[in-house]
Amino acid sequence: MNPAAIQTLRKLYPDRLQEQVLLAGYTSARIGGLADALLTIRSADELAEAAVCLWQMDAPVTLLGGGSNVLISDRGVRGVVLLNRARRVKFNNQADLPTVYAESGATLNDIAQRAARLGLTGFEWAASVPGSLGGAVYGNAGAFGGEMAGNVVSVEILHRERGRESWSLEKMDYGYRTSILKYERQPVFILAATLKLSHGEAGDIQAKMAGFSERRHRTQPPGASMGSMFKNPPGDKAGRLIEAAGLKGTRIGGAEVSSQHANFFVNTANTRAEDMKSLLKLVQATVFSKFGVQLEPEIELIGEW
To answer: Measured between alpha carbons, how far is 276 from 76 in angstroms, rounded to an integer?
Structure first.
């Protein structure tokens, strides 16, 4: 990173800027090299301020939320990583059509649990989904028949050229595990989102969430992983194809295709990002060779590869 930019950041954020930070501890897979610099963000306004500052310096900037669904390179990330801990959540639960406004660093589980305590339904599916709201909005995360596209009312974004904007659900152009932000790679950061909910009975909502949580723990492996590695191809399941290809338990280094659910790759111990990427490529090639199906990664690769 440009030494002059680092010097400027040291002056702007003397108590918050960290340098040469190992990112493995900030990801659900516990994998990742060093960031040149890391700056923890505590609000949407702080996120906007830091992003504008870094853009003006033309410094490389990467936003990291809950650290799920990402694989960070062993070589790390150049520039500044903004660690998103902007987690303000505000419910409008008195209206006939209740909503919740949440900053992009809020966890899905926190939003779902707080909604349940208020007797608000419609977000139960997200209670056991790891990661932050920003990543979920970006990738249209989903589980148990629900997805972000079914909840989003509007998204507050910061555009590099146009500043802060509010985008409608329609403008997000959601598809299966994607959005316009993901497939166009626009120069934006997600600051917050407003989600729609409905009134319900707290006991019923809690019971539904408990059922989803039990199902997730029964069917998905514990330990360090990125979540689902591949999108489900049309009319099929990625996990079924990987298992049918005989790949359960396959290992490269410390990276292993889970014997419990084949669409999860587990960091068994001291796994390198390169091992995980090599395993991903092996699974793709094997499934394509056997079934003619090209599995598309659900995870994102971050850093220098």
So the answer is: 15
